[in-house]
Amino acid sequence: MKTLEINYIWKNFSQLSTDELYAIINLRQKVFVVEQDCPYIDADYNDQDAFHLLGYMDNELVAYLRAFPPGTMYEGSSLGRILVEINSRGQSLGKNVTQKGVNFLQKNYPNDEIIISAQHRLEYFYNELGFNSRGNVYLEDDIDHIQMFLEPCEINQ
């Protein structure tokens, strides 16, 4: 299997070009609204408070997440909208982009835990990255979710 060359770029909201923002929203809607058959409003006005990690392969956005400082979404820092484009899956890009998000938050907010609202079916995926479950399964946009957290000392750098 050939090695993928992904170019990752961090940007805050004001640094995103119109084309970048459009590509992000387009890919998020393809994955979360169309693929997962989950009608919800993706443009939730939280993007303005987030740092955005864009992963490009051959100038095409194939991986993405948004990261939040402590006190924005939760008491701790947070990751969300983690995704890999459908034709780029099965090559560990999900773990790669998530680990980059974890590393970013640990570097910038080393004393804060990372809290995520994970789709319950992905609990094992996040366990492998050091996250632990907290509380019971709950519905979010008609999909089972569970809160997960990563203590600062557990973060793999």
UniProtKB/TrEMBL annotation:
Q: Output the superkingdom of the source species.
A: Bacteria
Domain (N-acetyltransferase) ranges: 11-153
Which PROSITE patterns does this entry report, sorted A to Z?
GNAT (PS51186)
Q: List keywords of the entry alphabetically.
A: Transferase
| Record organism | SAR86 cluster bacterium
Fetch the Pfam families from UniProt. Answer: Acetyltransf_10
Q: Key word Transferase present in the record?
A: yes
Q: Transit peptide among the record's keywords?
A: no
A GO MF annotation of the entry reads: acyltransferase activity, transferring groups other than amino-acyl groups
Q: What is this protein called?
A: GNAT family N-acetyltransferase
High-level lineage: Bacteria, Pseudomonadati, Pseudomonadota, Gammaproteobacteria, SAR86 cluster
